[in-house]
Task: inverse folding
């Protein structure tokens, strides 16, 4: 086991944990936001367009917190600066 | 179809990847479609009706005056819609899975918002960086830069992850199995195009609204 092997092993495991943890939190948050949005839609169908638009924008914002771990995971897997 | 941008050839220090080529071809294609559609009166009317409907949607989104931004946002929608869906053509990958294109579009959106606010309110709109307290200036600036980076990374991450999933499923299972993923990719692509335009609009409108509120307070 050279140092490079260890770097590869740690990178792969870390990439997995990063993506899993990142998508976990974002999934919880997005599910909650979606549930609240549906609740608001059921209560006020007249404001459907406003609610849907705001919901989409908000979901996109929350989504970006899942995208950051994904980008970190991709860097670890495909563009790792420590693997020669 | 490579999930990562592949260099085709290089002109001096500039490496031309396939996403550059696809971007240029798409731009020309969109212009040609537009010019051809203007030739026939029926398509012309349909295009104008669509434009007016979308313009109403954009203007009604916010109370700030964003009429000058309508062409930019419609261009973003149309271009991103084409660019995200072009991966359905066999052998072609979306240029938006390239961080360079996503970052360039995010920079355009960043500067467009600030230039528009400067044209409407002059340099006085910069005052909203000192709200609610001048001590928060660094955080406001970090927030401004951070949301531009987030705008680029969101588009890039969503499109690249879609391509990666399709590539992995294709490698594991073979022909026709990635089809459900591609259908999901159509949905993600359209939603991301919509989100990119709307976020450009919302960011531009938020700095405008702050300046308008301030002027209103000073007037009363």
Result:
């Amino acid at each position: 086991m050279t140092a490079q092997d260890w770097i590869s092993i740690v990178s792969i495991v870390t990439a997995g944990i990063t993506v899993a943890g990142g998508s976990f939190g974002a999934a919880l948050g997005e599910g909650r936001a979606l549930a609240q949005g549906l609740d608001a839609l059921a209560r006020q169908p007249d404001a459907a367009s406003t609610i849907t638009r705001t919901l989409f924008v908000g979901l996109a914002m929350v989504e970006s917190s899942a995208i950051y771990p994904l980008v970190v995971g991709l860097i670890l897997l495909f563009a790792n600066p420590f693997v020669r | 179809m490579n999930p990562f941008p592949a260099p085709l050839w290089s002109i001096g220090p500039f490496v031309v990847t396939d996403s550059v080529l696809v971007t240029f071809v798409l731009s020309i294609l969109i212009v040609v479609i537009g010019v051809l559609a203007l030739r026939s009166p029926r398509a012309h009317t349909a295009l104008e009706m669509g434009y007016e409907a979308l313009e109403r949607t954009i203007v009604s989104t916010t109370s700030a005056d964003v009429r000058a931004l309508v062409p930019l946002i419609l261009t973003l929608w149309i271009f991103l819609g084409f660019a995200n869906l072009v991966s359905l053509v066999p052998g072609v990958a979306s240029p938006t899975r390239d961080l360079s294109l996503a970052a360039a579009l995010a920079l355009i959106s960043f500067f467009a918002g600030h230039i528009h606010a400067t044209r409407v309110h002059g340099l006085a709109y910069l005052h909203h960086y000192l709200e609610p307290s001048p001590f928060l200036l660094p955080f406001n600036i970090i927030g401004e830069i951070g949301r531009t980076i987030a705008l680029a990374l969101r588009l890039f991450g969503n499109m690249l992850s879609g391509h990666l999933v399709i590539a992995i499923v294709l490698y594991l299972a073979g022909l026709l199995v990635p089809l459900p993923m591609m259908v999901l990719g159509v949905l993600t692509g359209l939603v991301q195009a919509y989100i990119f335009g709307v976020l450009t609009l919302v960011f531009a409108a938020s700095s405008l609204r702050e300046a308008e509120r301030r002027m209103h307070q000073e007037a009363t």
About this structure: Chain B has one domain: 7-219. The radius of gyration of chain B is 20 Å.
